C-alpha cells in the first residue's frame, strides 16, 4: 500500500513516502508539494499532510490539492490538517482557549506561523493562507474530492486543528 506524507519536515512517518521541499528535512523525496510527476499516479491508498498547506499561496494550494487527487486510487483517502483560523479568531478575542500557556501567542501562530526562533520557529514557517472548515471543504470539493468531513477523533482532534478527511471519487 502506497502512502505519502507531504510536508514531513523533520518528522519521518514510518511506512510513508515522506516528501518535503526543504533539502535539510527528513524527506525521502525533496519536491514541491504539487510536483507529483515522479510518483505513480492513481495508485496511492493514502495522502497525509499535517500543518503544511497553510504555508502555500492559495493558487499553489489549489494546484497541490489537484495533484494529490491524481496520486490517489479511486476511493483513496486524503487527510489534511491545518490551523483552524475560526478557532484562532475566537482565541485572540478570549472566546476560546487551547492547551498552550500563552493564548495570544498561540492565536497569532495560528494565523501567521511560529516565525521567530525564540518560539522554535523560523521565517520559513510563515503561513501564507488560512482556512476555516467551510473554506477548506470548498477547496477540496472544487479540486474533485468527495465525502469531505472534519475528523473529530484520534490525533490532532483539538479544536485548533482543522483536521479534514476526503476521498477520491470511485
UniProtKB/TrEMBL annotation:
Domain of life: Bacteria
SUPFAM superfamilies given in the database record: S-adenosyl-L-methionine-dependent methyltransferases (SSF53335)
Pfam families listed in its UniProt record: Methyltransf_23
Name of the protein in its database record: Conserved domain protein
Species, as recorded: Blastochloris viridis (Rhodopseudomonas viridis)
